[in-house]
Cytochrome P450 (Mycena sanguinolenta), 466 residues
Amino acid sequence: MAPQGNMLQFVLPPQIGDYEFAWLKLYGPVYRFKGCLGKNRLMVSDPTALQYIANSPDFELGPTLDSLVHGLDHQQLRAALNVGFTAAAVRQYQPTFEKVAQTISDKLDQSEALSIDVCSLLSVAAFDAISEVVLGCPTENLDADFVKINLDVMHLSSSQSASQILADAITGFLPRWLRRLAVNLPTKSSKLIRTQASLATREGRRAVREKIEAARQGLDPSDDVYSLPLNSEDSKESLSTEDIAGQTSIIMIAGGETTANTLAFGLVELAKNPELQDSLRAEIHATLSNGRRNIAYDNMPLLNAFIKEALRIFPTVPFPERVAVQDTTIPLSEEITLKTGQRTDRIPVRKGQLVMLGIASYQRLESRWGDDADKFRPSRWLDGTVHQGEAIGPYANLLSFSGGPRTCLGSRFAVMEMQVILCELLGKFSFSLPVDHVLRIRFAATLQPVDATGNKGTPLCVKRIL
Ligand code: HEM
């Protein structure tokens, strides 16, 4: 139950999962390992345990996230903002996603390069989608400093170093009041994050004021994420302009790279597997031949199986952290053997214990996904292989969007954005691997693809076919 390894091996291996997935096979779905300065971390990928930790008031966000997200009545805010993320709301964003997807096609058409870094194209597209759908305006109408700082934050998160991980771990030792002060330290990353938050709030405030003014003038309300709560009878009572504007920073950070990188990993899998690519393209062409208006993306079995498989194998938030806020006991779905040889189906933990929600490991458990759990195989979602039963996350029985009260607010938004972009790109282009293709996956705030030079990106050969 206690591997001979440490936090740096876990988070910064040569290839993500080198240690994590080996330890999963060796030690099972619950084990402890040493974090920085010898502090124990409990790694959990047992489904019952994950469900318990994600939903129980005995656990809160881990110290790194907690120092960024504070000062809000989380549940109240979530309930009010959710109006902009329901299935009905997200359906209204479809034309905007289609416009963003068309822009990627135009850029691919204009490129004469032999191979193109699809990752950076998708990052820009994901930013455009959030700008249009959340703030209600195209990226070019946003403040230039704000656009630049979001790119800078992206670059910062692409360069997670051993010292940064050590700094995060040390922050975890500090009492909560001191951790919050630590965010105000004059380090490069703290300054960048503070500036992004302040520019995002300013931009959010501007967007909210424009919407309030439009409503005052009797103009038709828009259907974007910020307009919907402002115009909903239930939400407008409980939300202030500042409450809404204050969410801009976290939405920009949480919604962009996660979606873009999942898509980039998915395109690499398609480039590796021309047969799968052809089958998916056939489904897309058959659907689009009925007309491009009101496309029922949810009724495309292979497309949705492919998206689920991309989320399963490449969960871009692979191990979020929680901390026990009181002594508690975590239930397990199956008995495990302790170092003493004793068998148990519950793990007692002390207040202050750091726990990693092993989303990536859970999604490779052979007991849950079969002997080929490590293999990228979308057909598992169509041939009855996937375990049916209690769903522990909001989408399929995946945990890529986490679970419980902190579940990703934008999961439906992300799924529809991916459906639309994949249909547009695969409908018109074929993707293949360049001869010298290398894909390394690293964790730096999110899972991200890294090219042969060690930079974030994944070049693919792209050919227009229609
Ligand atoms: C494939 C794409 C995405 C993935 C894999 C993903 C994953 C996640 C995960 C795992 C969490 C919870 C982290 C934790 O438990 O510590 C989260 C939270 C969140 N996500 Fe996403 N996300 C995605 C896309 C989006 C999009 C498109 C948006 C918005 C436009 C968004 C908005 C949020 C917000 C606001 C939270 C914080 C929720 C809260 O604290 O209540 N996400 N996301």
